[in-house]
Amino acid sequence: MNNLNFNNKKVLTTGGSEYFGSVLVRYLQNFNTNVCIFDQYKADTDIKFLKGDIRDKKKLIKDCNKIDITFHYAANMPLALRNIEYNFFCNEEG
Predict the structure, then answer these.
(1) Contact, 67 vs 10, CB < 8 A?
(2) Which of 56, 64, 68, 82 is 20 to 30 Å from 38 at the Cα level?
(3) Strand 48-51 with 69-72, pairing
(4) All domains of the chain, ordered by start, with CATH?
(5) For 48, what's the count of Cα atoms within 13 Å in the CB-facing half-sphere?
(6) From the CB of residue 13, how many other CB atoms can be counted at a distance below 10 Å?
(7) Is 20:14 a contact under the CB 8 Å cutoff?
């Protein structure tokens, strides 16, 4: 990611409260960025946080307009194949 310019960009990270997303958010803080996390679960951070479900397209569009760069890290980690449809919509269509 060294050749990408994040300076003065509005960056959205879906799933930014979990491990991979939180690592990315910490990395992005090294630049002059306006980082926002869109997730179901609140991270223990002072980063702007928007609570929402990745499957709720209307909320996602409403809350996250005028974003320059989006990193999609939201996913449902299935413990079992109990709810295949839910996992598909979170991980593939979200």
Answers:
(1) yes
(2) 82
(3) unpaired
(4) 10-93 (3.40.50.720)
(5) 11
(6) 25
(7) no
